[in-house]
Amino acid sequence: MSYIDGFVIAVPTANKQAFIDHARAADAVFTENGALRVLECWGDDVPDGTLTDFRRAVQATADEAVVFSWIEWPDKATRDAGMAKAMKDPRLDMQNHPAPFDGKRMIFGGFVPVVSLP
Q1: Which of 47, 72, 102, 112 is the most exposed place for a label (fewest CB within 10 A)?
Q2: Element housing 32 (H / E)
Q3: E strands of 1-118, at which residues?
Q4: Is 5 helix (H, G, I), strand (E, B) or coil?
């Protein structure tokens, strides 16, 4: 069964195109290392919640959008090997290719699908 890495980040709205460019370059590294699919989704309808919400989770400010992303891998073993290789790839070196967002506010985790519908 597949394995999913999920991410939620706050990106300054002024950096939308820089984010898209950064994501295209970074996502190529993941697909070259075994990822089946990568989706980068720019927040369009992200409401404020009563107790918590995506914006609060990443401490998004009024001039930031919430981005929800995921990487689909064929299985956890492929993800572990592919992610290890990707993290060593110079295209993901943050000193040479800084992200157009504050990575300290990124929320991420690995997930095992429990329901999958076509």
Answers
A1: 47
A2: helix 16-32
A3: 3-12, 37-42, 64-73, 107-111
A4: strand
Nearest to 33 by CA among 76, 71, 81: 81
∠88-31-28 over CA atoms, to 5°? 75
Half-sphere CA count of 1, side-chain side, radius 13 A? 8
Q: How many residues does the chain have?
A: 118
19-65: per-residue pLDDT in tens? 999 999 999 999 999 999 999 999 999 999 999 999 999 999 999 99
Side chain identity, residue 111: F
pLDDT the model gives residue 80: 98
Kindly report the CATH class assigned to 3-111: alpha beta
**Domain ranges, ordered by start, for the chain:** 3-111
Enter the tokens of residue 108: 């991420």
Given the structure tokens 């998004």, which residue do they identify?
60
pTM above 0.85, yes or no: yes
